Amino acid sequence: MKPEDFLTGLGRREKKISVIGLGYVGLPLALAFAKKFSVIGFDINEERVEMMRRNVDPSAELSEEDFQDTDILFTSHPADLQQAHFHIVAVPTPVDEHKVPDLKPVFSASKTVASILKPGDFVVYESTVYPGCTEEDCLPILEQGSGLKLGADFKIGYSPERINPGDKEHTITKILKIVSGNDAEALEVVAGVYSAIIEAGIFRAGSIKVAEAAKVIENTQRDLNISFMNELSIIFDRMGIDTREVLEAAGTKWNFLKFYPGLVGGHCIGVDPYYLVHKSLELGYNPQVILSGRRINDGMPAFVAQRLVQILIQQGKNPGACKVLVMGITFKEDVADIRNSKVADLVRELMKFSVSVHITDPHASPNEVAHEYGLSLVDQPSGDYDAVLVAVGHKDYLSHDIRWFKSVMNDKPVLVDLKGLYRKPEPEEGLVYWRL
Question: First-to-last CA distance in the chain?
């Protein structure tokens, strides 16, 4: 079938698109397509599916309006996918406790697609993987499970997701989309399908491996740049220099890249580099720079906790008798996602010093925090804290000032401002202030 004929079939709703995995990536994608085409949204979690049927985003990123004027069937039954002809796999690809890629979700999704795959179908992966995974690992599952052959019966592609949770400006349709296919025809169909919803344009990668590699280095690059800033913050802290002031001064040069120190968590920047590392090790090369950056960023929670304990001791306080308020536990500002939150690691590091820690967060689910980390959230600060540590830059926190922080602390108050949200207080204001 010619690419234009396939696209015409989608436009007439004679063919359907399926999206497998309806999380932060899959749901906005499915709804965007459903405004133009007929879509089947599939997720293995029936509870989440039921919420979406009620126009509720389980991830709390989308509003009820985003569900309006869409042609979409939400389902947890694989058999429903048989109605679709263009399948998009958008499941998570995390790492395990040993920092090894956990591909079980993407392999399971591949088996599901294989069970309903038909001649003439297309399968496109959006999940972040190492270069070669789509063709070397997922394709054999599709062929074995379906009895069909690539090229003769069906085609595949890869189009890396570029969702930025919490960002209301760079939404899915406004971010340039990389596409790829196993041959020229597949590339044109994949490009044609996505161009129907992507306003920012389409970039055709030369191969599936190139598209996979492009995705995995996007976040690896950010990881390394932030790790450099974190290492600088450790060095400058020992020198008694404010890192933010240094970066502000250096940033006056036109070609200085503006990155800042901080905790690196979440399901992208702190995870994707390990996929590239995994493939590199398989090929016999032990990457130095990537792993060095990862070690620095993974060590920041311990560094911050130790630094806070040092400050408490300098203030004449016994850490074991101190109470600290930690504000924010999501992996980034203004989102509900707590996956791979380095704030949780920071809290545990403080607890190693017998510090009593209270945690607040206006966006995080107390049940999810308890389930994921075994930690409890408090509804409101109780006051009488020895220190407050602002870990996440939620908009809710921006209105706080020095007076407010002092009002919830006892004598010799300490404010740790990890994101540099607040002005440095003057010495006469009586507040010890520290930031990365």
Answer: 57
Short-list 247, 273, 246, CA closest to 99? 273
How many domains in the chain?
Answer: 2
DSSP string, 119-136: TT-EEEE-S---TTHIII
pLDDT digits (tens, 9 = 90+) for 222-231: 999 999 999 9
Three-class SS of residue 118? coil
Pick the closest to residue 33 from 55, 12, 10 (CA basis): 10
- Residue from 133, 138, 268, 322 carrying the catalytic annotation: 268
266: left (phi over 0), alpha (psi -120 to 50) or beta: left
* pLDDT > 70 fraction of the chain, expressed in percent and rounded: 99
Strands (E), 25-166: 38-42, 71-75, 86-89, 122-125, 155-158
pTM of the model as a whole: 0.91
Query: Can you tell me the distance from the alpha carbon of 145 to that of 136, in angstroms, rounded to the nearest whole number?
Result: 15
State residue 254 phi and psi, 5-degree precision: -60, -30
Q: Which two tokens stand for residue 257?
A: 């890249």
Q: Is the domain of 233 the same as that of 305?
A: yes
- 172 plus 27 within the same structural domain: yes
**Residue 144: how many CA atoms within 13 Å on its side-chain side?**
9
Residue 208 pLDDT > 90, yes or no?
A: yes
Distance, CA of 201 to CA of 248 (rounded, Å): 34
Query: Do residue 328 and residue 423 come from a single domain?
Result: yes
What CATH number does residue 426 fall under?
3.40.50.720
Could you tell me the residue range of the domain that residue 373 belongs to?
226-434
Q: Is 322 a known active-site residue?
A: no
